[in-house]
């Protein structure tokens, strides 16, 4: 990720919150294979586990699952089952994986918004405002359906993911929320054999919030005016973030990623 100083987000708790606010990550792998493409990606909703929520440095672990029939799953299992691999029998992938989380709050920014520069030397160009986080880590793949630890991981993953969706996203109370226990045991057991679990130990977490921080004050004010004039929900939210990031630029110690 290209991180210029104005856009880089280094606050780890804020980045953890960004991942939780935007849990649908795009996991990309680069696995040499005679049967599947080298590069593959899958959108996966992730749970972020953190041992100490008060920690300013802990990166945490991601948990998710994907369909066993997904070609990326097949490439993962193939790599881990290869007897010639450096660690035969291990369920930890040799190569790092990359997971990208992106906020839906993003917008094109026309150079016409830059009131100061366009009235002067006009040395500028359009751009795009957005926020994203990138996770790098080692992935443990829970793929052997006959191993009790795999069943335990997948059951916990399914329960935790549905709980997050039902309460944090849908806003249901515990009494109204759907749970895995609401489905027939036979259906759950059959479904569990059709997925593989993904557990990523994060060793690098980067964030970028590109919200016109690099602009001259009057150009940035023009961006806010121009976005608000569009009168759309997304444009209004981006305008708010541009204002918030401008304020944070004056007080960098109060840095925080917005969703």
Automatic annotation (TrEMBL):
<dbReference type="InterPro" id="IPR007396">
    <property type="entry name" value="TR_PAI2-type"/>
</dbReference>
<dbReference type="Pfam" id="PF04299">
    <property type="entry name" value="FMN_bind_2"/>
</dbReference>
<feature type="region of interest" description="Disordered">
    <location>
        <begin position="67"/>
        <end position="90"/>
    </location>
</feature>
<dbReference type="InterPro" id="IPR012349">
    <property type="entry name" value="Split_barrel_FMN-bd"/>
</dbReference>
<protein>
    <recommendedName>
        <fullName>Transcriptional regulator</fullName>
    </recommendedName>
</protein>
């Amino acid at each position: 990720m290209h991180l210029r100083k104005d856009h880089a987000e280094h606050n780890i708790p804020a980045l953890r919150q960004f991942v939780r606010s935007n849990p649908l990550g795009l996991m990309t792998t680069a696995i040499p294979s005679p049967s599947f493409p080298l590069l593959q990606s899958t959108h996966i909703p992730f749970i972020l586990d953190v041992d100490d929520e008060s920690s300013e440095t802990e990166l945490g672990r991601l948990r998710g699952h994907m369909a066993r029939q997904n070609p990326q799953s097949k490439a993962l299992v193939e790599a881990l089952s290869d007897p010639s691999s450096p660690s035969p029998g291990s369920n930890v992938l040799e190569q790092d994986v990359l997971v990208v989380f992106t906020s839906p709050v993003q917008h094109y920014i026309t150079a016409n918004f830059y009131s100061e520069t366009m009235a002067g030397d006009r040395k500028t160009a359009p751009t795009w405002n957005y926020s994203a986080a990138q996770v790098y880590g080692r992935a443990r793949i829970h793929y052997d359906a006959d191993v009790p630890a795999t069943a335990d991981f997948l059951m916990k993953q399914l329960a935790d993911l549905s709980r997050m969706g039902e309460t944090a996203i849908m806003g249901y109370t515990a009494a109204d929320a759907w749970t895995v226990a609401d489905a027939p045991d036979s259906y759950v057991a059959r479904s569990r054999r059709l997925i593989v679990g993904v557990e990523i130990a994060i060793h690098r977490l980067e964030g970028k919030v590109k919200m016109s921080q690099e602009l001259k004050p009057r150009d940035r004010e023009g961006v806010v005016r121009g976005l608000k004039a569009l009168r759309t929900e997304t444009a209004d939210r981006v305008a708010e973030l541009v204002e918030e990031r401008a304020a944070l630029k004056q007080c960098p110690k109060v840095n925080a990623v917005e969703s």
